[in-house]
Structure formats: structure tokens, C-alpha cells
Amino acid sequence: MRSIKYKLTIAIAISALLSLLIAYVVINLSLNTRFNDYLKINQEKRDERIISNFRESYIKDDRWTRTSGKAVEREAESANFTISLLNWDKTPIWTMDPLNLVTRDREINPDSTLSMDQYVAYELPIKSENEILGYVVIGQFSPLVISQDDENFLNSITVGILISAFIAVFVILLIALFVARQLSDPIEKISQTAYSLSMGDLSARGNDTVDVKEIEILRKSINSLGEKLDRQDMLRKRLITDVSHELRNPLNVLQTNLEAIIDGILPATPERLQGLNSEVIRFGKLIDNLNILKQFEAESMVAKIVVLDVRQVLQDIYHNFQGLTKEKAIKFKYIFSKNTPVHILADKHSFYQVISNLLHNAIKFTPRNGSITLRLSNDDDYCYIRVKDTGIGIPKEDLPNVFERFYRVDKSRELVEGNGIGLTIVKNFVKLNGGTIDVTSNLGKGSTFTVKFALYQPSTDFAATELEEEMDFPLTFTDGREYDESDDQPPSKDT
């Protein structure tokens, strides 16, 4: 199995080599084509010049002679082509033997490949005022004559291209190694972090930032996963401790008292039996809460969704909790807007459970002579239910975890009883009804839980009488007094 650095380097190098090979082939083909065009043009100019020399020679002597045009013979020998002069009737005046050129070339270069099989000749007319004076026959050993200088020039360009290609390959390999390292090193570190997490080291984190967007997102995701796993591991350990603690306390109380009653140390008075029954009830509540969480995890919780008049339900809850708040001398207020009906689609039992749990928590953590406010407000799309208390508050570092099961702030553990499941159930019930819940808190000043639900917009055929009947309940002032038609001013609106 190869590393990502190796594979990236090979991939970039192969891509670069293929690109260079294609570029080399294209450049060579283009160069040879252009060079052949250049040679062809030069050859045509040469032929025109040769014909012009023969024409001038004929005009000068007014006839062909054995020396007519002999000046170009020396050029032909040096360039390895032959020239023959023919009269107008194509009778030879003088000719060059191509075999002499082959013999001479082999004497100079024994490895010469020049042969008569390569010899090609073509005939061109010599004209003057549209009169054919004669013919010149030009023979050469290739379609295009390439001089030694031309060949050296072409070879130098080819060698230059090859050298440039090798330099480019070397540079590209260095770039490939650099790029592969820039990409692979952070990925390797992230993979090491992920491996450490999988091996149980939940404190492993990738701390080196990367300037590649996707890799940086991956690093942050792995770190976030590690934080969540670390928190879940902490909660798991706390769960084991808390569950054993919550189960052991009522069992110890039951066992100790029952053994004392059996041994005759304590009498089985109704008061003592009532206390033992309270422990059994507390034990049962814990089991019930665990069963509720189990139903949520198994997605077997069934909701009966109906249209709820939120103000009516909150009014009922407000009346039900007045006795509890009076026992602790807590000021309890319910604030809402009189003129705007608020309806949502929700399960009535779970909605009631959400608000009740939030109020129970507020009562637990609010000292005597404190205050709790139940506030209902809405905009065009949503309604907002806020439960605000003046209790002990929640530390900022604990706010993200308050809805985790069995999570309890250390300070609250010493002050009040509880098993740390209530807010977990609240969050699941809110989610079940399509809402959201948030919490804000100031340590020592209190907390505010905000539940948000989408408003139900009744259809036009929804009977007004039914709506009025559902909304028929006493309104209250912010101080808890009930409102009726004899009051001069209605309760203040919640803004």
C-alpha cells in the first residue's frame, strides 16, 4: 500500500511527462512542417534563379553553348544536386552525372547513405517572351535539398527542445514533490489524529492549520469529532456513576429501614412506611424517565398531533404551579398578549411535559423570595415561550451540555435533588413537536429557557365559534391578578 505522497508525486510526474511528450511531438511536427515549407520556398527561389541565369546566358550569346549556365554547376556540386541543359527540342547541351556526386560523397564520408535509388529529377522550361528557349533538368537525392547548415540548424533546435524537456521534467518533479508534501503532510497528521481517536486517545487533536480549504474542513471535523467523543465518554462515565448513585440511594434507604424493621430495631409505623414508599416512588420515576429516553432512542415515541391553543395550555399550567411557587415564596408571573391568538400543531401531553419540566427546574434552582416569569410572545411565523428565573444560574462552560443526559452542574448537585434527565426529556419532546429550545444564563442571576414553535395558520373554514370557545380562559396581569371586563386596563402586551 502506497502513501498519498508517493501517489500524488507519481500522478503529477506522469501527467507532466505525458504533457511534455505531447508538447515535444507537436513542436517537432510543427517545426518540421514549417522547416519543409521554408526549404520548399528556398528551392523554388533557387530554381527561379537558375532559370534566370540560363535565360541571361542565352540572351547574351543569342544561342546555347557548351558553357551556357556553367556558373551554377559549382553551386550544384556543393549542394548535392545536378543540372542539365537541354535545347528547345530537348537535345542535351551539357549534363551533370549524378553518379559522380554519389562517388565523391562516399569518398568523403564512407558511411554515406547517398544512392541512385534516392535520385529524383524534374524538368523546368526556360522561356523568354512566351518562347521556350530550352529546358533545365534539376536532379537531387531527396524531394527537398537540405544543406549541411540547414541540417545542423534543425538538429540544434531538436537538441534544444530535448534539453528543455529534461530540465522541465526535473523542475516538475521538484514541484510535484513539494505539492505532494504540502497536501500529504496535513492529511497524514489528520489520519494519525483519527487513528489515535480510534485507539482510545480521545485527547488527540490536529492543531496545525492548513491553507487548503477541504483539508482544513477535514481537520476541524476530526477535532470536532474528538471533542464530541471526549464529551460523550465523560458523559458515559458520569452516566454510570450517576445511575448507580441514583439507584443505590433509594435501595440503601429501603434495605436499611426494612432490615431494621425485620430485626425489630425500628417499628413499622405509618410515617416510616410512607417514607419508604416515597423512596419507591422516586425509584419508579427514575425508571420511567429512563424508559422515556429509551423510547426516544428507539424512535418509538408516538405523538398525537392536534391544534393547541398555547395561551390556554399555559394558563392551565400557570394555575397548577401557583401552589408550588407560594410554598417557596416565589413570585410567579404569566405574561402574554391579549389580542393575538396563538395556535400550534403539537402533542398536548408532551407540550405540557416540556413547560412543566422547565417550571419544576426553575422552582428547584430559585431561592425563596425569587421570581419566575412565564412569557408568551409571537411574530408572524413563530411563537416563543420563555421561562425565566432568578435562580443560581448556569456557568458559561456548562451551557452546551445542559441538555445531555445525566449532566448536572456540580454546584447544583450539592443544592437540589435530581437525576439530570429532565432537560434531556424536554429537548426530545420539543424536537418531537418540531420546535427548538435554547438557554441563556448568568451565573448567580438566573436562567432563561426559550422554546420556539411554528405557528399554526388556520384555514378560512375554521369556525370562529370553535376558536372563541378554545380561547375562553381568564387573562392575567403581570403580577398574577386575573383580568375581566370590569378592569380599566388590560394586561400589558409582551413585546
UniProtKB/TrEMBL annotation:
The chain crosses the membrane at residues 157-180. Keywords: ATP-binding, Kinase, Membrane, Nucleotide-binding, Phosphoprotein, Transferase, Transmembrane, Transmembrane helix, Two-component regulatory system. Its EC number is 2.7.13.3. Residues 181-234 form the HAMP domain. InterPro entries: HAMP_dom (IPR003660), HATPase_C_sf (IPR036890), HATPase_dom (IPR003594), His_kinase_dom (IPR005467), HisK_dim/P_dom (IPR003661), HisK_dim/P_sf (IPR036097), Sensor_HK_Regulatory (IPR050736), Sig_transdc_His_kin-like_C (IPR004358). GO terms for molecular function: ATP binding; phosphorelay sensor kinase activity. It is an enzyme of class 2 (transferase). Residues 242-457 form the Histidine kinase domain. It holds the Pfam family HisKA. SMART domains: HATPase_c, HisKA. It is found in: Membrane. Its main location: membrane. One of its GO terms (cellular component) is membrane. It catalyses: ATP + protein L-histidine = ADP + protein N-phospho-L-histidine. It comes from the Bacteria. This is histidine kinase. It comes from Proteiniclasticum sediminis. The lineage of its organism: Bacteria, Bacillati, Bacillota, Clostridia, Eubacteriales.
